[in-house]
Design brief:
18% of the residues lie in helices and 48% in strands. It has one domain: SH3 type barrels (Roll), CATH 2.30.30.110. The longest helix has 19 residues. It has a six-stranded antiparallel sheet with strand order 4-5-3-2-1-6. It is α+β, with helices and mostly antiparallel strands. It contains one helix and six strands; from the N terminus they run ββββββα.
């Protein structure tokens, strides 16, 4: 079982190709072996929530709240660290804002 707020390395398929690579992702929630995640990129030009090197990754990165998808728990390679409560709240608040726009 994987906890919400955990950053893990997982096999991720890119949206513009069929290529699959190991990349960091943020676990949003897990249910029945299916894990909903947000992609993380080191491309600082992307839009999202900053995730600084001092928070646990090898380099400053961005949590891409516009790149949310489901993976199998079998696609997780290893756990890295967990976000602190304030960063988790920031992520969930931003996702909620995006979903509220849809409901209007």
């Amino acid at each position: 079982m994987y906890d919400s707020g955990s950053v893990v390395i997982a096999k991720v398929q890119f949206t513009d190709t069929y290529e699959i690579k190991k990349r960091p992702v943020l676990i949003l929630y897990e249910e029945y072996g299916n894990i909903v995640v947000a992609g993380i990129t080191s491309n600082l030009d992307m839009i999202g929530i900053p995730l600084l090197k001092k928070e646990g990754l090898l380099k400053d990165s961005i949590i891409k709240i516009n790149y949310i998808f489901t993976i199998s728990e079998k696609m997780i390679y290893k756990s890295l660290f967990s976000l602190d409560i304030n960063k988790r709240k920031q992520v969930y608040n931003e996702i909620t804002k995006k979903l509220n726009i849809i409901l209007k």
